[in-house]
Design a protein that fits this description.
With about 400 residues, the chain is an all-alpha fold. The protein is built from 19 helices and no strands.
């Protein structure tokens, strides 16, 4: 959507604010008791200044979307059915959520990092500069207007680095933790910051920025085909709530995708399922494959027959430790690979890609988009836990025959 003229944009923002502070606040006050204690005028400002309260409001909305149905309409007063459809205000539900999340984050960053609790539009509070000779002297001794404009506060710098990734309502609960991150780390993460969905994840990011920790869940924004079958819910939700209302989070609500328990353990495989057990094959921190778990597997003649450099047992065992935890979960979760299949597939890929490219793609943290495309191709080729090792080998060699290798 092309940007609107400033006047039109200001008009839309005013309309959204009036709706949020009026009809939305009226309904929300029945669901979140704390709102009844706030002044009728200014309730929106109070909520935006309190991430915890705003998070409760979003959760109340998701749990009671039918109560807001009459507000989710387009300019013709017809209920919208898509999260990206335009509402009567001229913006989509996704846009409104993003605006609210970003405003809350910006206010918190300014308060936490700059000690500035003024409203965002606080410029009118400044005293006018003296006129006459005194004014001229003060202007000469001060920074030029352009220099002042270029000097950003700590809170503003962090917000600038993060704003394009502040889009989902579940991020509001993380805003206090976000404020502890450095702008450099945020920029390095880019959209991968959305992989970290709980406060503990953000705290681990801050504590170990050099080596990014494994998120507690697989990324929300990976394609549907990458979500493990056991984690997909094909059953319609009760009451068949409108898609637009259910999507108030600015996208999908964080799903329970292959949850990792303390120590990296995952839910046990279904009965009769021979897939590798995540709890057994990953290191305790969940970051990489535990090569020692594959000692007996690599002694299997059927496995050794498919491996490159099979005589170098110690070396190939150690190579498995280069496979990242997230890549492992995607391969096992979606393809249902057994331990022997996983070993054959990853070691052949390593041999064909070379150490550097393999680490970039399947290592820590790896390139999940790249892994996802490979998984999609494997599924299209019919790779499952019933596929023979020779077929796994042939498919992998064909797929990566022309894989790029880093310059030596």
């Amino acid at each position: 959507m092309p940007p609107l003229p400033s006047e039109a944009q200001a008009r839309i923002v005013r309309q959204i604010n009036l709706t949020l502070e009026g009809p939305v606040a009226d309904v929300m006050a029945q669901l979140v008791p704390e709102l009844k204690k706030l002044p009728r005028r200014g309730v929106l400002q109070c909520v935006l200044d309190d991430p915890e309260l705003l998070d409760r409001c979003f959760k109340a909305f998701r749990a009671n979307t039918d109560r807001f149905r009459q507000l989710l309409v387009d300019e013709h007063d017809v209920p919208v059915e898509q999260a990206d459809a335009l509402l009567a205000c001229g913006r989509s539900l996704e846009d409104v959520v993003s605006m609210v999340v970003r405003t809350c984050a910006k206010r918190h960053f300014r308060k936490r990092l700059d000690g500035d609790s003024r409203p965002l539009k606080g410029a009118s509070d400044r005293q006018p500069a003296p006129k006459g000779l005194m004014g001229k002297l003060m202007r000469l001794l001060s920074l030029s207007g352009s220099e002042k404009a270029s000097k950003r506060s700590r809170g503003e710098v962090l917000y600038d680095a993060m704003q394009e990734h502040l889009i989902h309502d579940w991020q509001v609960a993380l805003v206090p933790e976000y404020s502890t991150l450095s702008p450099a780390l945020v920029k390095r993460l880019g959209k991968r910051i959305l992989d970290y969905k709980v406060p503990e994840d953000i705290r681990r990011l801050k504590e170990n920025p050099a080596e990014l920790p494994v998120p507690s869940t697989l990324p929300e924004n990976i394609p549907a085909f990458l979500v493990p079958p056991a984690a997909r819910s094909e059953t319609p939700k009760p009451a068949d709530k409108p898609r637009a209302a259910a999507a108030i989070s600015g996208g999908d609500i964080p799903a329970q995708v292959h949850e990792v328990k303390a120590g990296g353990a995952a839910a046990p495989a279904p009965s009769g399922d021979r897939r590798a057990r995540i709890a057994d094959i990953l290191t305790p921190d969940g970051k990489r494959l535990r090569s020692a778990a594959f000692t007996m597997v690599l002694l299997d003649p059927a496995v050794r027959a498919e491996l490159p450099n099979a005589d170098q047992t110690v070396r190939i065992t150690g190579l498995l430790a280069e496979v990242g935890g997230l890549s492992t979960k995607m391969l096992v979760g979606e393809l249902g690979l057994r331990m022997d299949q996983l070993a054959v597939m990853t070691l052949i890929i390593y041999d064909l890609m070379g150490e550097e490219m393999f680490k970039r793609s399947f290592g820590i943290p790896g390139n999940l988009e790249y892994v996802g495309k490979f998984v999609e191709r494997a599924k299209a080729a019919g790779i499952t836990q019933e596929t023979g090792l020779s077929e796994i080998s042939a498919f992998t060699r064909k797929t990566f025959a022309n894989a790029p290798r880093a310059a030596q």
